[in-house]
Specification:
Elements lengths: L1 E3 L33 E10 L3 H10 L1 H4 L3 H4 L5 E6 L22 H7 L4 E3 L9 H13 L4 E3 L1 E2 L2 H4 L3 E5 L2 E9 L14 E2 L4 H14 L2 E7 L10 H13 L3 E5 L7 E4 L2 E4 L4 E3 L9 E10 L2 E13 L2 E4 L2 H15 L6 E3 L4 E3 L3 H5 L2 E3 L1
Parallel strand pairs: 1-18, 2-3, 2-14, 3-4, 4-5, 8-10, 10-11, 11-13
Antiparallel strand pairs: 1-20, 2-15, 6-9, 7-8, 12-13, 15-16, 16-17, 16-19, 18-19
Helix pairs in contact: 7-8
Length: about 350
C-alpha cells in the first residue's frame, strides 16, 4: 500500500588478516548508548568492479562510475555494500563459471566515494581461493575500507563486526546461504561466513548484549527472481526473533519485497548497485537508509536508484515510479506500506507511522 507524505533528508582495520574474523572499528563494543545522537546507515546492493564495469571504467574513468553517489548517499554517515568479487593479486582463480577480481586499489576507489564497509560473505569474494580472500581483506584494509563476513573457521566467520559512530554501536553479521561453486567447504578453514542457525543465532545473541543495533546481511535467494523463497523468509524471521534489528539481502540482482516483521525491516533483495547487467529489472534498485538513535530504529528511507551503463543514479520520473510500483507489487504479500515523497519513500514500521499518513492508491 502506498501513502502520500514527506521524507526526512537523510579505523581500525577490519580484524587481522591472519587471525579470526573482523572484531571492531574502534574498540570493543560496550554498553548501549544513552545519548540523543542519531546515525544514518545506508545499504546498497551488489557492487562489481570487474567485467563490464571494468570496461566502462577503462573507457570513461573509474570516477565516472561513481559520479552520482554523492547525491545518492547525501546525509548518510556510513554506507555498506555487498562487494561482488575478490581484490586479489596473482592468485590462481577457482574453476567456476564466473570469476570476478577488482583492481588492487579497489579500496582506494570505494573509500574515495564514501563506501567504507563491505560484506564479503557472498559467492564471489572467494573466486581466487582462500589466499585470494585474505588478499582481498588486506587490499581493502590498507585503504581504510572495513569488511566483515569472513573468518578462520565457521564460527569466526559469522562473528559480529562492531562499529561505533556518534556514540552508537552497530554490529554487522554476514553469511551466504547456499553452497559455493569451485571448491570444497571445510568448516575449520579460513572462509566466508556460511549460514548455520546455531552459529548465527549465537552471534546475534552476543551482538545483542554488546551493541545498540544488530544488522544481518545475507547472500541468498534465486537470481533474477522477484519472489523471496520460503527459506529466505524462515531465515530472516529467525534472525529477528534472535534479536536482529534488520536483515538485508543480496544475490538475486533484482529487487525483492520488503517485509516488516515484529516492527523490524527485512529487505529480501536490494538488487544491484554497480553492475553490468542491462536486463531492465536488474537496473532498478533502492538505497536503503536506516536512521537510528538511542530511541531505537526511528525510520527506514528508500532512495530509488537506476543503473545506466553500469553507473547508478537517483531515479526520477517514470523510472522512479516504476521502481516503487515494483516494490509495492513485490511487498504486497507482506502487507508493507510506504510513505511516498518527492525524494523517495519511507517504509512504515508501525501502526503509529501508518496512521500518520494519508493512504493513497
Amino acid at each position: 500500500m502506498l501513502v502520500a507524505g514527506g521524507l526526512a533528508a537523510g579505523n581500525q582495520a577490519a580484524g587481522s588478516l591472519i587471525t579470526s574474523s573482523p572484531a571492531t572499528e574502534n574498540q570493543a563494543a560496550g554498553t548501549p548508548t544513552t545519548g540523543e545522537n542519531t546515525l544514518a546507515i545506508g545499504f546498497v546492493g551488489d557492487l562489481l568492479l570487474d567485467r563490464g564495469v571494468r570496461a566502462v571504467a577503462q573507457e570513461k574513468g573509474i570516477d565516472a562510475i561513481f559520479q552520482n553517489t554523492g547525491a545518492i548517499f547525501a546525509g548518510v554517515e556510513l554506507v555498506c555494500a555487498n562487494l561482488e568479487g575478490a581484490v586479489a593479486d596473482g592468485e590462481k582463480p577457482l574453476s567456476k563459471t564466473f570469476r570476478f577480481n577488482g583492481p588492487s586499489n579497489s579500496g582506494e576507489i570505494l573509500k574515495k566515494h564514501n563506501i567504507t564497509l563491505v560484506n564479503l560473505a557472498n559467492n564471489h569474494s572467494i573466486d581466487f581461493g582462500r589466499d585470494g580472500l585474505r588478499q582481498t581483506v588486506e587490499n581493502l584494509r590498507k585503504y581504510g575500507v572495513m569488511s566483515y563476513g569472513y573468518g578462520e573457521n565457521a564460527a569466526a566467520a559469522v562473528q559480529p563486526f562492531y562499529i561505533t559512530r556518534a556514540g552508537i554501536t552497530i554490529a554487522f553479521i554476514g553469511a551466504v546461504c547456499f553452497p559455493l561453486e569451485g571448491y570444497v567447504y571445510l568448516p575449520d578453514r579460513f572462509d566466508v561466513g556460511r549460514w548455520d542457525a546455531g552459529l548465527v543465532g549465537r552471534a546475534i545473541s552476543e551482538a545483542r548484549r554488546k551493541a545498540d543495533f544488530v544488522f544481518v546481511t545475507f547472500h541468498w535467494g534465486i537470481e533474477f527472481s522477484h519472489r523471496s523463497t520460503a527459506t529466505q523468509m524462515k531465515i530472516a524471521r529467525f534472525c529477528i526473533d534472535q534479536g536482529a534489528d534488520a536483515v538485508i539481502g543480496s544475490h538475486p540482482h533484482v529487487l525483492q519485497g520488503i517485509e516488516i516483521y515484529k516492527g523490524r525491516p527485512i529487505f529480501y533483495s536490494l538488487g544491484n548497485f554497480i553492475f553490468d547487467q542491462a536486463y531492465e529489472p536488474a537496473c532498478r534498485s533502492v538505497f536503503a537508509v536506516l536512521r537510528v538513535s538511542a530511541k531505537g530504529l526511528e525510520e527506514v528511507l528508500l532512495r530509488p536508484v537506476y543503473i545506466r551503463d553500469c553507473i547508478p543514479e537517483l531515479a526520477a520520473g517514470e523510472k522512479k515510479e516504476a521502481i516503487f510500483n515494483d516494490l509495492k507489487e513485490y511487498s504486497q504479500v507482506f502487507g508493507t506500506e510506504f510513505l511516498l515523497t518527492g525524494e523517495g519513500a519511507r517504509v512504515l514500521l508501525s501502526t503509529t507511522q501508518r496512521e500518520s499518513g494519508e493512504v493513497s492508491d
